[in-house]
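Hey, sorry to bother you again with one of my protein questions. I've been puzzling over a protein and I'd love to understand its fold better. Take your time with it, there's no hurry, and the full record follows here:
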Amino acid sequence: MTSVSVDLTAALSPHFHRLKIGPLLIRSGAAAVAARTFARALPQGRWLVVADPTTHRIAGERLVAGLAADGLPCELLVLKPRSAGATVVADDENVEAVARIVREARGSIVAGLAVGAGTINDLVKRATHQTRIPYGVLATAPSMNGYTSPIAAILSAGVKTVQEAQTPAAVVADVDILAAAPPRLIASGYGDLLSKPVSNADWRLSHWLTGSKYCADAIRLVEEGTRLLDGVAAGLKTGDREAVARLTGALILSGYAMALAGTSAPASGGEHLISHYLDMTHYGLGEPGDLHGCQVGVGTLASASLYERLFAWDPASLEIEDRVAAWLSWPRYEEGVRAHFGVLADSVIPLAREGYPDAAALRARLTRVKSEWPGFAARLRPGLRTAAAIRADLITAGCPTTFAELGCAPERARRAFYLGKDIRARYTVLHLCREIGRLETWGEEILPGLF
């Protein structure tokens, strides 16, 4: 079998002075040298290897055997789902389970190793950050872009939160293991990455209207990853190793872009808020759930459709004082948030409050939109793709393109579309469309095509 590899040195070398980038292997057979690779990057001593039952079988057993053969001591933790048929969850409780082992070892555990994908990687990167030890990751699926990001997506009090973590000291991504991952996991990684033009547009929108931090270098790194994706969609559907290797490289670059920016904004906009809402109601209310990237792909179609309508919209039609007069005070708006989110409301309200403008701030923002939107839109448009083009690529790669394919009923999809803006303070196209009074109108045009 021909060996397949991806070398990201050229893309990452301009950023070595700003990012902590250790050994990074994306190639066939990489698992065979995983122990030696981690030994180059992690301190000598006992390491905590963390997996779940599936990732332990796929790669963890082999890694532990390789560590033993190389005389590298380790302790193994296989996290189990809390109920039959469930999966391990990246939540505060599991983070604490990993961190407790490190703390109780009283300094004898000097590094962590994550064997898995999104959930296990997030748990280990967060727990090792808390306990101030480095970690490495042996990737088992190209399902998300968080392998190399400095943040972790952790379920906390029912809300999917972004928590401070750390980038890995080493990444081993065996293309043979990744290409054998379930097709839905591969589709998830592709769906996550196809959101980047939309999330980048949201980031620029937020910078323009709210003054939030913006980093052009991070955008360029994301664009390097986008070039890796050219022509891979059909190969991903069949598990082609070259296509999977390029997808993995793009995911890793996306994670490093977040590290470069110091925020998840280069990779997470309104489409992610829709996905996070679905996650919250899955874990908190028992509603159906799907993989993060699959949900993001459908959310991206919604956000891209909003941008298409914004580009066709005439800001001269915006009646600023009418919008300000109709704007609810925060106490009134909070009543609606509490009613909509129910048992999750106490966790959501602080985030919604942070992102909710008062009348004066709304007036200032809308004044700028009315006068400057055409020029800003002209600069924004070239970086975006149409919803139709995104849908075609998702279908080619075997990704979901409707809420129904996610197991999400129309009423819940509407809630995700209209209420997702309240679970983060970050400004997105969802927020802008609500502020100009078009979110509901355009939503009723867009959503039927996504059911």
Q: What stands out?
A: The chain has two domains: 9-180+215-259, 269-450. Residues 269-450 form a domain with the Dehydroquinate synthase-like, alpha domain fold (CATH 1.20.1090).
